[in-house]
Design goal:
228 residues; alpha/beta; Rossmann fold; Dihydrodipicolinate Reductase, domain 2; 2 domains; 37% helix
Length: 228
């Protein structure tokens, strides 16, 4: 079994991870990090991979711990300006996966955008970004990632993100591309938080043993496609 250290265990996503790991025959939960269980209590030899879905300050401490003990990290923490610097520095010494959304469906949607390159030349493009009312970052990391993927082949075209924060929405993302003759909409709807946790757990075995570097969910998908 792969031994997991979980940061942010008392948060919404942390509780989902804890449930899935405890139910799994593939993973074991070795240590948790929250306000009642500090990182100092973690035992490095009991951890193979660290999963972090916490807050910015906690992620910074987790990165320091991973650097010190050379442990691979999978993190979904977003919402602060210098996160790229923190993650990039950590990836110089160990394998790190950082994503604002670990849904395999979202990753597949983003990859599929390349097939709309020709159509997008004449189209108006915009994104709708729906999340629960307590989500702090707006637009979300997922919406920004979709926008960046689109801009890679529509560099001169403005792409507006319409963001809505309401109720208990887990996440809905819509990409619209419209011309005078036709309208294409790609939609992804998360039906529970488990979709994000299950996606991240898919990467645990893959990241274990990887050389230092910053990896993406797309790297994992490409590996799985090429493997088959």
């Amino acid at each position: 079994m792969i031994k997991v250290g979980l940061s942010g265990s008392t948060g919404r996503m942390g509780q989902v991870f804890e449930k899935l790991i405890l139910e799994s025959e593939k993973f074991s939960l070795s240590n948790v990090y929250n306000k009642n269980s500090p990182l100092e209590s973690w035992v490095p030899k009991d951890i193979d991979v660290v999963i972090d879905f916490s807050l910015p300050e906690a992620l910074k401490e987790v990165c320091k711990w991973c650097n010190m003990h050379n442990k691979p990290l999978i993190t979904g923490t977003t919402g602060f300006e210098d996160i790229k610097d923190v993650v990039d520095v950590t990836s110089l010494k160990m394998a790190v996966v950082h994503s604002g959304n670990y849904s395999l469906g979202i990753a597949s949607l983003i990859q599929s955008l390349k097939s709309y390159k020709v159509f997008s030349h004449e189209a108006r493009i915009w994104i709708e970004d729906y999340h629960h009312q307590n989500k702090k970052d707006s637009p979300s990391g997922t919406a920004i990632k979709i926008s960046e993927a689109l801009k890679s082949f529509t560099a001169t075209k403005p792409i507006k993100i319409n963001d809505v924060r309401a109720g208990s929405i887990f996440g809905i993302h819509k990409v619209h591309m419209a011309t005078n003759e036709e309208w294409v909409t790609l939609t992804h709807r998360a039906l529970s938080r488990e979709v994000f946790a299950k996606g991240a757990l898919e990467l645990v075995s893959w990241i274990k043993g990887k050389t230092a570097g910053l990896y993406t969910l797309e790297d994992f998908l490409n590996h799985e496609v090429n493997k088959n």
